[in-house]
Amino acid sequence: MSDKIQNIFEDSIRTKRGCIENNLSVLTEMGNQITESIIKGKKLILCGNGGSAADAQHLAAELLIRLRPNINREGIPAIALAQDTSTITACSNDLGFNLLYDRLLKTLGQSGDSLIAISTSGNSKNIISAMKTAKEMNIKTFGFLGSGGGKALSFCEKAFIVPSDITGRVQEAHITAGHALMEYIEDKLIQMGHIKQ
């Protein structure tokens, strides 16, 4: 059993090394565009399902509240579309789960906002629907994806794709990339004097 646990850690390390070799520069490109959007008074919107919904909420909280204990700064506008259970169940019951993020994006999103859609498969119907809507609304659309990107890839301006189709390894790399991206955005906004410490 201990070999199984060690193998999971080693597989996670290999997957993250694959990310380093393949596409880390895309995070800088995303960070620059998201920072520019926030400076213009817009916000970052995030969405995902299951563990990816938790990651979306986690990353939004890092901007809204605090990311690093040694940097006390103003909040940065971000929202995760995985809202409360009343909103989720009402939409699922009345309109269908596939329209959940589409509905919320149409209600809460604005032209010039940025969307990070998180999907380990890249094929989640509600994620793809939200990405299509984002494009129609002139919202910058970015993907945190796995499994080669799936159908969601064609709706991304930029995509961070984890080179794995194992859900756990993809999610582990997504949260590492998410933390790196949030720190990059935070640093840029502070350096540019847009937020105060």
Largest sheet features: 5 strands, parallel
What is the CA-CA span between the terminal residues? 47 Å
What global shape is seen?
globular
| Low-pLDDT ranges | none
Helix fraction, binned, reads: 40-55%
Strands, total number: 5
Which percent band covers the strand fraction? 5-15%
Whole-number radius of gyration? 17 Å
Secondary-structure-based class equals alpha/beta
- Series of H and E elements: HHEHEHHEHEEH
Number of helices: 7
Overall residue-averaged pLDDT value: 96
Subunit arrangement of the protein: single chain
- Biggest β-sheet: strands ordered side by side in the sheet: 2-1-3-4-5
Describe the fold and architecture.
By secondary structure, the chain is α/β, with parallel strands linked by helices. Helices cover 54% and strands 12% of the residues. The chain contains seven helices and five strands. A five-stranded parallel sheet has the order 2-1-3-4-5, with helices on both faces. Helix 2 crosses helix 7 and helix 3 runs parallel beside helix 7. The relative contact order is 0.19. The mean pLDDT is 96.
